[in-house]
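quick one, 96 residues, struct below
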Amino acid sequence: MAADFREKMFKRLSSTECHGESGGVSVVYTADSTPTSVVVSPEALAGGAESVAEEAIKAMKAAQAESQKTAQSVMASMNKDLMAELQAQEAAKNKK
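---
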């Protein structure tokens, strides 16, 4: 059961996208904090390399913060589901 729980949690975290944007730079992380994409708009490029770097860092921080919040939410929800399942199994045992 624990292995199934870990597998489900990993799949859910790795398939949930979290976005961050700043000054024409968009970054996507998964909820397990893996960066998956960066998109820089033509307008952001026009600002020059230093500006793009600054905006990329801001977008990355925003996406990472969202990733951490989302991960906490997913884990709390899945833990609640697991506890309910364990309680149901215990109740079924006690009926026997």
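The helical segments are 2-15, 42-46, 49-95.
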